[in-house]
Amino acid sequence: MSPAPTLRKHSIATIGADGIGPEVIDAGVQVLRKLASLDGTFKLDFEEFDWSSETYKKTGQYIPDGGLEQLQKHDAILFGAVGAPDVPDHISLWNLRLAICQPFQQYANVRPTKIFRGTESPLRKANPGDLDWVIVRENTEGEYAGQGGRSHRGQPWEIATEVSIFTRHSVERLIRFAFETARKRPRKFLTVVTKSNAQRNGMVMWDEIAAEVSKDFDDVKWDKMLVDAMTCRMVLDPKSLDTIVATNLHADILSDLAAALAGSIGIAPTSNFDPTRKNPSMFEPIHGSAFDIAGKGVANPVATFWTASEMLIWLGEDEAAKKLMESVEAVTERGVRTRDLGGSAGTKEVTEAVCAELEVIYGRKKA
Ligand SMILES: NC(=O)c1ccc[n+]([C@@H]2O[C@H](COP(=O)([O-])OP(=O)(O)OC[C@H]3O[C@@H](n4cnc5c(N)ncnc54)[C@H](O)[C@@H]3O)[C@@H](O)[C@H]2O)c1
Fold it and tell me: According to its UniProt record, which protein family does this protein belong to (predicted)?
């Protein structure tokens, strides 16, 4: 008798955090549990961390002492969103999300975007397939390096500096990662976003490194765009783009534009990868805590489902990841959509519809 196959196990840390974060993470965990039980070849163990602006207001800390060591024990992190109306945004972002990405050297922030079947782009001429991009964002330095300061506070001669940091080490590893990402996609095409006309130091080095790294990727075609012109190209000629690499700030802005052009910020995912796998990578929707809709049960959970699927690929569960995305797209196509996508369904209905679709895909239920 052949031995029973061993169940692959993955441990996931969940941090819902603020606003709609816990709502979409609960939906994501529900769908992932369903998927694992239907699949039967892998098991997911979840550990919830209650790190949020509420915790900060009570204890003065978002991440308790020893918190990163706790996270380190997990294979991946599923993150909601941080930001509360009564805590300054730079405090919440720097003390939770960036306090994980930067020490864990999750240097490649990968943001795919596409138009789902059954949804509409605000662009008149873009249909599913016409906009299918992956934005690779530098995630540890650049404009968000945290360098700078303020002097003479409140005086008319007050000074504030925000210094962008570009190191050869980080730019090269990121651009190499972007070429590798482009190489894995059918079109093998990379657009390097820059601003080297106005920013004549860091951005000129960025361009030089892109040209150097490109020599190792003969099979990948590439071009270069100034970030301002890039916004026009994204709107006017979405089919001309495929994989895009940009700095921390540029890609942050371009990826929100990308999500909106694909239909809603509520569908777009982010992977924060430490490609060395020394630290757990972190997966999240790109949207924020959206306190305008928090607690109303209307948040779109699709971005979280997509990021959960990206997490499964990272963990080696490609087949299950594919099935999850097939279910999500079947559900949007059938018209079960939240308000941001022009529908009337709530978070719960979309989540239940995806779980039901998974049962169909795994052959447990008839369509
Ligand atoms: N990664 C993060 O944790 C992250 C990212 C962006 C913003 N933020 C924080 O979130 C807070 C709110 O920021 P914001 O308003 O600029 O951006 P946001 O993404 O939270 O919201 C922008 C708009 O999109 C809508 N929206 C966002 N996600 C949605 C979803 N899943 N379904 C339906 N509609 C959705 C919101 O209702 C809002 O109208 C701020 O504190 C900000 O700092 C955090």
Answer: Belongs to the isocitrate and isopropylmalate dehydrogenases family.
- Residue 262's pLDDT band (boundaries 50, 70, 90)? very high
Contact 260, 55 (CB under 8 A): no
Question: Pairing between strand 189-194 and 221-226?
Answer: parallel
- Dist. CA 79 → ligand 1 center (Å): 14
How many angstroms separate the alpha carbon of residue 19 from the centre of ligand 1? 9
- 293 in ligand 1 pocket by Cβ < 6 Å? yes
Domains of the chain plus CATH, in order, are 7-106+268-366 (3.40.718.10), 121-149+160-262 (3.40.718.10)
**Shortest-distance atom of ligand 1 to CA 270:** 1
Q: Ligand 1 centroid vs 68 CA: distance in angstroms?
A: 25
Question: Which residue's alpha carbon is at the smallest distance from atom 29 of ligand 1?
Answer: 266
Close Cβ partners of 176 (under 8 Å, ≥ 6 residues apart): 213, 216
| Per-residue pLDDT tens over the stretch 347-356 | 999 999 999 9
Model pLDDT, residue 1: 60
Q: What is the mean pLDDT of residues 49-59?
A: 97
The whole-number pLDDT of residue 5 equals: 73
User: How buried is 22 (Cβ within 10 angstroms: 0-12 exposed, 13-18 middle, 19+ buried)?
Assistant: buried
Statement: residue 152 has pLDDT above 70: yes
Give the distance (Å) from ligand 1 centre to CA of residue 99.
19
- Read off the pLDDT band of 4 (50, 70, 90): low
